[in-house]
TrEMBL record:
Domain Deacetylase sirtuin-type: from-to ranges: 10-272
Family: Belongs to the sirtuin family. Class I subfamily.
Taxon lineage: Eukaryota, Fungi, Dikarya, Ascomycota, Pezizomycotina
Binding-site positions, NAD(+): 38-42, 48-50, 120-123, 214-215, 238-240, 258
Native source organism of the sequence: Penicillium rubens (strain ATCC 28089 / DSM 1075 / NRRL 1951 / Wisconsin 54-1255)
Name of the protein in question: NAD-dependent protein deacetylase
Length: 340
């Protein structure tokens, strides 16, 4: 996985929702392919990554990481897994409820219009909302299993849950190995599953593409919208423009919240009530996972780690005097008080 910052956006235009509604109503769109990102789950209470101020990467500033994405980079994790575990509980999907947007995907599936969903999210809320799992590829993996990053041994679920609950890094049970255990989510520096290459072809079969809640800044998912055949509409439902969506004549950009955007579409299609019913059912059905109930907020987790880092780096006055005395007695001729 890598960053993809190439963006070519044409001038903004009014969304032509009616053209999409007509296409669906006249049966011209029956193989809808969807690409989703963190923005479809912010309504469930989990911050996205790159939104200024509210996104995870801005919130991580107090941790002074070498760069924000380092927290999810496999090389950084290999020697400093603490930041990942400090925030893991606050991002764990245990107690999240599906949003209206997740329910909209389930509604498309129910109406036999959903060809395939590529999600970059690891929260599993698509399935919780009722999207059949064989219609979804969790391109960046999930929290359901975990392995030692080093020797790849598996690690028991109950111990992993405990680690996420307490924020303490779990280490490989093979004491000779000592590697940190990592959930089977795809980190930067790792490859996506081979299934991605296989499923990518589904995009060529799309007769409509929906792109929702993603900045399209991370490859390889960012390239999927460009694979849509010419003449096939691509609909972006997002707070901001993303990738090259809006550049083609048939593109439709509905800027604003995903939940509002899908409601607008559903209402125009006459599906408003169905959508609401499905959403309410999904919210009621999702059981809370007591393992993760009542944990600290993301901001509290970050604050706690930031102050523990500060404490570790802090040298007490007494310790400082002892070090100065020691250095003076050893190197007094070259190090004098007030230098260095
Ligand atoms: P980003 O945070 O990069 O982008 C989220 C997009 O959703 C932004 O364009 C927001 O403006 C938009 N957005 C946020 N809330 C919204 C809402 N309620 N309604 C509409 N739009 C909203 O997240 P992704 O594109 O998913 O990978 O990021 C891709 C990958 O980068 C992630 O899977 C993650 C990250 O680093 C790893 O951690 C390995």
């Amino acid at each position: 996985m890598s960053d993809d910052t190439s963006r070519h956006i044409k001038a903004s235009m009014e969304p032509d929702i009616q053209s999409i509604v007509d296409r669906i109503k006249t049966g011209k769109a029956t193989r809808i392919v969807v690409l989703t990102g963190a923005g479809i789950s912010t309504g469930a209470g989990i911050p996205d990554f790159r939104s200024p101020n509210t996104g995870l990467y801005d919130k991580l500033a107090p941790l002074r990481l070498p760069y924000p994405e380092a927290i999810f980079h496999v090389n950084y994790f290999s020697h400093t897994p603490e930041p990942f575990y400090a925030i893991a509980r606050a991002r764990h999907p245990g107690n999240l409820k599906p949003t209206v947007t997740h329910a909209f995907l389930a509604l498309l599936a129910k109406k036999n219009l959903l060809h395939f969903v590529f999600t970059q999210n690891i929260d599993g809320l698509e399935q919780d909302a009722g999207v059949p799992p064989d219609k979804v590829l969790w391109t960046h993996g999930n929290w359901k299993s975990q392995h030692c990053y080093k020797c790849k041994s598996s690690y028991p679920d109950d111990l992993m849950n405990k680690a996420i609950r307490t924020g303490e890094v779990p280490y490989c049970l093979d004491t000779g190995c000592g590697g940190a255990v990592k959930p089977d989510v795809v980190f930067f520096g790792q490859s996506l599953s081979a299934e991605f290459d296989e499923k990518e072809k589904e995009v060529l079969e799309a007769d409509l593409m929906l792109v929702m809640g993603t900045s399209l800044r991370v490859a390889p998912c960012s390239r999927l919208p460009r694979l849509v055949r010419r003449g096939i509409p691509r609909v972006l439902i997002n707070n901001e423009k993303a990738g090259d969506l809006g550049n083609r004549d048939d593109d439709v950009c509905i800027l604003g919240s995903c939940d509002d955007g899908v409601r607008q579409l559903a209402d125009a299609l006459g599906w408003g009530e169905d959508l609401n019913d499905l959403w309410e059912e999904a919210v009621a059905t999702k059981k809370n996972d007591q393992t993760f109930e009542g944990g600290p907020s993301l901001d509290e987790c970050i604050e706690k780690l930031a102050s523990s880092i500060k404490d570790k780096m802090k040298v007490s006055d007494g310790h400082k005097r002892m070090l100065e005395n020691h250095l003076n007695s050893k190197f007094g001729h070259i190090i004098t008080k007030g230098h260095g």
